[in-house]
């Protein structure tokens, strides 16, 4: 297949390209969904149709490696990637950390199957391909096409799993929108500056997220201190209360993990939270940061986990790792 100067629609699963009986849409069915004047500019190519629960960071790396090859080696003009809504925010964020090419890489998906009454397949594929062809997405990093707009992955937050409002861009506005009735793509702004890190495989694998909750105990944290677990631990994400606070009983246990040179990133459990060292008491964010936990800033726990895996794989340590982790 000659992909030079084409938009490659890479099918990595998702209901957007599946029938309700889980059959994948055929290439003929996919082309039939696109406007006549668009079809000659598009090639469809299948990857692995996997449920989000089966994804590993290694698989994510292999997928982005394939996308890079489509652009760098095969001369694709851009790539539109379909995947499940369950994975779209994390997978696109991972891609945005390592994508250093100018051609657009645009993710899209839908909570509805392609043959359901509420299907968005025609609209989403058409919009994503139109944006990729427009030239206005060049050099803007990885993007998400959803809900009639284009967003930066760092700005996308999933809040539901059962309606069209399943993704929310917050606190930033969209990077661009699609005008009606023509459906042309209109740019509104540039994404914030990205710190791109070269992807180095294999990525760190064992980075659990440990959430703090009201009245929580330290059973899970003590389990991580068990030698059979701690020896395999690459890092840890703490999803703290409010500003990043944790129960006071966690403090001595976290000190032990730090002494074992396990990098620990502190984040807020709020979907749009930020770590703030406003008060100083046992278990406060201020105390944890003074102890040596890495400030995750505005990163969600899920973003922090992915970013830490990329940073550790690149060999970042100490101040360099902390600087890389802080901010989106």
Please provide a written account of the structure:
The chain has 328 residues and is an alpha/beta fold. The protein has two domains: 181 residues, L-asparaginase, N-terminal domain (Rossmann fold, 3-Layer(aba) Sandwich), CATH 3.40.50; 117 residues, Rossmann fold (3-Layer(aba) Sandwich). Helix content is 32%, strand content 16%. The chain contains eleven helices and 14 strands. The strands form three sheets. The chain has an eight-stranded mixed beta sheet with strand order 2-1-3-4-5-6-9-10, sandwiched between helices. Strand 4, helix 5 and strand 5 form a beta-alpha-beta unit.
Descriptive terms for the model:
328 residues; alpha/beta; Rossmann fold; 2 domains; 8-stranded mixed β-sheet; 4-stranded parallel β-sheet; 11 helices; 14 strands
Strand order of the largest sheet: 2-1-3-4-5-6-9-10
Report the CATH topology name of the largest domain.
Answer: Rossmann fold
Total strand segments: 14
Mind telling me the CATH class of the largest domain? Alpha Beta
**Percent strand:** 15-25%
Task: Tell me the Rg in angstroms.
Answer: 21 Å
Instruction: Report the major sheet.
Output: 8 strands, mixed
Order of helices and strands: EHHEHEHEHEEEEEEEHHEHEHEHH
- Name the structural class: alpha/beta
Contiguous runs where pLDDT drops below 50 for at least 5 residues: none
CATH superfamily of the largest domain: L-asparaginase, N-terminal domain
Q: What is the residue-mean pLDDT, rounded to a whole number?
A: 92
In whole angstroms, the N-to-C terminal distance is 37 Å
What overall geometry do the principal axes of the alpha carbons give?
A: elongated
The number of helical segments is: 11
Q: In total, how many domains does the architecture comprise?
A: 2
Q: Percentage of helical residues?
A: 25-40%
CATH architecture of the largest domain: 3-Layer(aba) Sandwich
């Amino acid at each position: 297949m000659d992909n030079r100067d084409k938009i490659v629609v890479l099918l990595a699963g998702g209901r957007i390209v599946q029938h309700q009986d889980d059959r994948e849409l055929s290439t003929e069915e996919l082309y039939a969904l696109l406007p006549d004047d668009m079809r000659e500019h598009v090639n469809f190519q299948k990857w692995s149709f996997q449920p989000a629960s089966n994804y590993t960071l290694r698989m994510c790396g292999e997928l982005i490696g394939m996308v890079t090859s489509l652009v760098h080696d095969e001369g694709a003009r851009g790539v539109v990637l379909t995947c499940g809504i369950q994975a779209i925010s994390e997978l696109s964020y991972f891609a945005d950390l390592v994508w250093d090419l100018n051609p657009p890489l645009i993710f899209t998906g839908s909570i509805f199957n392609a043959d359901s009454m509420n299907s968005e397949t025609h609209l989403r594929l058409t919009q994503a391909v139109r944006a990729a062809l427009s030239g206005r997405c060049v050099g803007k990093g990885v993007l998400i096409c959803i809900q009639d707009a284009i967003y930066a992955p760092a700005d996308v937050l999933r809040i539901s799993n059962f309606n069209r409002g399943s993704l929310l861009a917050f606190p930033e506005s969209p990077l661009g929108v699609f005008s009606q009735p023509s459906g042309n793509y209109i740019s509104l702004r540039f994404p914030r500056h990205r710190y791109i890190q070269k992807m180095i495989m294999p990525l760190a694998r064992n980075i659990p997220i440990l959430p703090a909750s009201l009245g929580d105990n330290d059973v899970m944290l003590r389990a991580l201190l068990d030698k059979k677990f701690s020896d395999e631990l690459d890092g840890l994400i703490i999803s703290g209360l409010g500003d990043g606070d944790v129960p006071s009983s966690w403090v001595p246990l976290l000190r032990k993990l730090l002494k074992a040179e396990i990098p620990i990133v502190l984040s807020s459990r709020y979907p749009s939270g930020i770590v703030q060292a406003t008060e100083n008491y046992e278990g406060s964010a201020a105390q944890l940061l003074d102890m040596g936990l890495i400030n995750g800033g505005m990163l969600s726990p899920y973003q922090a986990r992915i970013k830490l895996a990329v940073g550790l794989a690149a060999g970042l340590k100490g101040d360099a790792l902390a600087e890389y982790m802080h901010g989106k």
